[in-house]
Description:
The chain is of the alpha/beta class.
Amino acid sequence: MIPRIPRFFCPFPLHPGAAIELPAEAAHHALKVLRIGAGDRATLFDGRGGQWLSTLQPAGKKLRATLESFDATDHEPPLAVTLVQALPASDKMDWIVQKAVELGVSRIQPVVAKRSLIRLSGERMERRSEHWRNIAASACEQSGRNRMPEIAPILDLPAYLAQLLALPAPQNEVRLICAPGTQVRLRDLPNPLVNPLSNPQTITVMVGPEGGFEDGELAAAAVAGFKPLSLGPRVLRTETAGLAALAAIMALWGDV
């Protein structure tokens, strides 16, 4: 079996022929875990699309890379999906971010709903957002994605909905909110890629916290253009619902 060439995310622009130094965490993983040696190859990407084949050269605790050939290959679905996730308890959001990126999400918008058990502000909120961006980068490394999904700043749900209402509604977007008990399922919706000129090419899916959305929040989401969506007869946990919706969207329309 041919060993897989390791992939590393670089949080800075890469250019032809550049000699760069890998970020400290990536260098540590490559040197201590992967046992990278002089002349070994790796694939580097900066999240803007495409990837670079490079040659590595250890230098003490540092790891330098010389960029060689560029490959414009991307593994992005033709459908852009935003997951609006109400903050769950514990570290469940780590799992949601990791798996959503693997499944092909384009953007994740964390929101704080009335029944959210975790509330973050200030420096703690910034650290958590940066933590999720690092998880997203690792998921891109693992899954072969070369475009880094956006992890948006945490917003209160009313602020997020007001932000949507303040902007003209895109003609190519459909907005869905997971609502157990409704009758509309994904299979009832038209294929958003059949006629890109008249049908939505972007989908936004909103998922509530452990206790679900309150009635007032559902009503406010409806004003912002969100349509209720059922994921079947069983009630899913918050960390399952968004990923199930994303997987179903990609299976139906995104990666076929």
